[in-house]
Amino acid sequence: MVMVGNKWFKCDLHLHTPASLCFRDKNVTAEEWITRCVEQELKCVAITDHNTGESIDAYKKVGKDNGIIVFPGVELTYGPNGVHLLILFPLEFTTQDVEDFLISVGINRSNFASQDACSPREFAEILRIVTEKNGIIIPAHVDEYKGLQEFSLAYIKDIYDNQAINGVQVANKVIYDLGEQASKQDKKEAIMELNRKYKNDNFTEDVLKSWSHPVKEAIKSKKAILTFSDNPHGEGDTQHGIQGIGTRYTWIKMDGDPSLESLKQALLLADLRIRSDFESNKTSFNTPNLLLERLIVENSNLNNDKFEVNFSSQMNSIVGGRGTGKSSIVRFIRGILNKNAELKDFDSILTDQQSFYSKTGGVFNEKTRIELIIQFNGNRFKIVSENTPQKRFVYKFNNDQSKWELTDEEYINKYFNKTEIYSQKQIYEIAVTPNALRDKIDEEPNIKELKLHVGKLEIEFRNLLAEKRKLDKEIKEKNGLMIEKKELEARLHKLTSSDYKDVIDKYSLLEEQRKISSEFADTLNKKIKEIKSNFEEIKIKKQFDNSIIKNSDLTRILDETKGDFNESTNLFSRDLNHVLTGIVNEFIIDLENSEWKKISLEIEKEYKDLKSELKPDEIEQVNLLPELNIELSKLNDRINELDLKEKKSKEIKSKILELLKKYMSACENVTLKRRSFLKTVMNNNDNVRIDVIPNRDFKYLTNEIRRIIQRKDGFVGDLESIVENLSKNPGSLEKFKKTVLNVNKGTDETSFSGRFRSVIKGLNNEQIEDILLLNIEDEIRVQYRKNKNSNYTALSSASAGQKTSAILTFLLSYGNSPLILDQPEDDLDNQLINHLIVERLLSSKEKRQVIVITHNANIPVNGDSEWVICLNSESKNIEKLVNGSVDNEEVREKICDVMEGGIDAFKMRASRYGFKS
Question: Residue 371: left if φ>0, alpha if ψ -120 to 50, beta else—which one?
């Protein structure tokens, strides 16, 4: 899972072994020493014993076996003050090579390993000899004993003026942190800290000043500030030991297969490739969750054999002259990730992509196989298309069994599709289409989450409106029911307020009592029948099979017992039936002899007498009285039910109004989130300014109104009038909505033109909901300026190159998913590329993988591309010529040979970072 290209390495390049006389424990072995390096998670170390190379051969071998890069080196003592210099040599140097060097600078073999040995050569002579051997010099611990602080400020400046000195080791953070304007209190605290560290009280402000000179001058001269351990045996111990290994370190970005040449390049580009432990205890690069590892294309119509490209986890540049098939790599990746949907607004690009990634006139044939290997959340996946672009298979690598296993294709849509791919034309279209840029901004996770919340509020609002409409439809029934109730109550009042009301009431009560008694008698008889039926079920009906029993005596016993049981059940049933029947008869007799029976006969006689006195129509009304009471009861129940629904409708109305406020507030929060996001993203950019102007996208508003009323054209005057009013009165949107509602209801016959009113009157419920939810979107205003001394101008008046660079600046400013840019430099001059695009590429690649297809050398060179893939300009097929980092000499040569402005790009890089090209 190791990615190609330049990488960050944790390095301690000032280390001693028992070969130094001042190493305390002489019994430490090479294995123990290297094991300590592994424990400290170091990747590159340098053996820099005092004036000797004795340990180099053995330690290099053990280091190689344990995955540790060991640079051969030495800590050379020189000059009258015995100043220490770290000398590092190419990896192939041996103990003998280092010893030969020591002799060449005047160190006697008898004095090897002693820090008291001292080269009599001048610094310039030592530097010449080191340079001849392709080595580098790093002044050691410049801010403490035996460092450059032993020399005058003028001498220090002379050393730093030498282009071959590109880094210094600094030992004291308290000195590094002292700025030019340090206060007396800062200096006092620094002196106290140094006295504590070096266990004396000799530090004064003058001493602090002299110790600070080499550090301040190194910073001014843009030298790489390096921090190494010098592996003390213990804290404050002047002797060396393995416990101190890796307690100080520097993060250095070098080629994936480090070399001294790569280290030299890193020192030259210190701002980009050096991070001392003063700055951070970790590299500035955090490996993203999603990375493209490798693309393999076999037997396509663009290549006869296998075409394979690996990718760095940071910046990749796919370079070559025009017509080398660079953009085909983008198309292969877009095709296998099935990212055509994002091209829906770019017809020509979509058509071209569909034509390319197809079997009809495209790259596919019967033997074609496309494979994209992806790293996601620490796991490896691969997507494979064979023979046809429509079929894709996703595999996951099983680390335990070291094999690929088929897995869910949904990984592509859910995770891998987060890869962002942009062509120059797409970028330009975004620049001239504000909505497209707003949509890109809204992909930011926090804004996206808030917009999902807005969507949920909208759904809830529509659901509540639908529920209220349903309730209101039922509530309309209430007025008719109230009239019906009033009439029925009048009839009942007339009947129940006459002289015979009491008789009728008593008779109605008697009828209810009789009904209860009759129902109870029915219940008793029903229960007796159930009991009889249950007794039948209790009886044993089983017949015994004599062919199985084959014993007459046993058969007899079984049959007799069954007969006795069933006879007893019959007897018990008859007795119980007799008892229960008696209870029922007694109940009937008691009713007939009761006081209630006497009263009921009197009531019945009164009722008969009353009926004989009434007229025929009054008799009919009396007979209907119970039914009328029942009908009134039902009416009251329904009215009460509608009262509750009316109350609920009012509650829902309150909720709707509250929800509408929440919805509009959430929309306002989207604006605030957009502003906050852009402020963070564009904070460090002085040339491009992107502002969010709340509720000013009137083109969006016009399109939304047309969508709602379902009219693509016409009504220009009405819409222009609406927009003009809203633009002059930003708070009048709610007034506009009320006007539409009133026109829809027919209570406003003056607003808008007659034809437009007719359309508004015909709006359905869903369209009215859209009006209520209508919101004026934010305008995304992009401004650009050429330099800090010029004024910002609207992007609409900028050149094509300026528009492209402004949007590229934004796209490169945020996100952590892989970003693929296909020839973004089209329409851009070198000034724009270097001042805008390169700066953002340098920042962007520290948090995401970037793949740039380019024919402009400034992008890989000044963007310090971690991995460069040079394609062959002379081949008819898509073919890789060479790949590697910019540190690779062959890659540099190809950049100069095949790319536009290759040599000029390297000259610009040298000028930019202050070294000779």
Answer: beta
Quote the Cα angle for 660-663-668, to 5°: 130
pTM for this structure?
0.76
pLDDT digits (tens, 9 = 90+) for 615-653: 666 656 666 777 878 888 899 999 999 999 999 999 999
Token reading at 114: 């002693």
**Sequence-separated (6 or more) residues with CB below 8 Å from residue 683:** none
Report which of residues 46 and 427 the model is more confident about.
46
Does the structure show a pLDDT above 60 at 1? Answer: no
Distances (CA, A) of 429 to 347, 785, 805: 12, 20, 12
pLDDT number for residue 267: 95
- The Cβ of residue 281 has, within 10 Å, a number of other Cβ atoms equal to 10
* Distance from chain centroid for Cα 46: 40
Give residue 839's Cα distance to chain centre. Answer: 24
Confidence of residue 215 (pLDDT cuts 50, 70, 90): very high
Q: Beta strand pairing status for 403-407 and 274-276?
A: unpaired
Closest CA to 263 of 119, 505, 89: 89
Please provide the size of the chain in residues. Answer: 917
Residues β-bridged to residue 671: none
Query: Which segment, 220-234, 313-327, 583-597, is predicted with the most confidence on average?
Result: 220-234
**Of 882, 887, 888, 851, residue with least CA distance to 869:** 882
Three-state DSSP state, 87: strand
**Residue 622: both structure tokens together:** 């009396």
Query: Which runs of consecutive H residues, i.e. helices, occur in 593-689?
Result: 595-613, 616-681
User: Who contacts 475 (Cβ-Cβ below 8 Å, separation ≥6)?
Assistant: 642, 645, 646, 649
Find out whether 883 and 866 touch, Cβ atoms under 8 Å.
Answer: no
pLDDT at 916: 58
Give the distance, in angstroms, between the CA of residue 54 and the centroid of all CA atoms in the same chain: 53
> Which amino acid, one-letter code, is at 558?
L
- Please tell me whether residue 694 adopts helix, strand or coil conformation: coil
Contact 209, 228 (CB under 8 A): no
d(CA 59, CA 47): 8
**Nearest C-alpha neighbor of 909 from the set 187, 85, 272:** 272
State the Cα–Cα distance between residues 418 and 718, nearest whole angstrom: 43
Mean pLDDT (the chain, rounded): 88
Residue given tokens 């222009």 in the structure block: 720
Q: Residue-wise over 561-586: b if at least 16 C-beta within 10 A, else e?
A: ebeeeeeeeeeebeeeeeebeeeeee
Q: What is the Cα–Cα distance from 335 to 329, expressed in whole angstroms?
A: 10
- Alpha carbons 629 and 636: distance in angstroms, whole number: 11
The 8-class DSSP code of residue 23 comes to: B
Where does the pLDDT of residue 829 fall: very low under 50, low under 70, confident under 90, or very high at 90 and above?
low
Dihedrals phi, psi of 3, to nearest 5 degrees: -85, 155
Nearest Cα residue to 692 out of 678, 682, 704, 681: 678
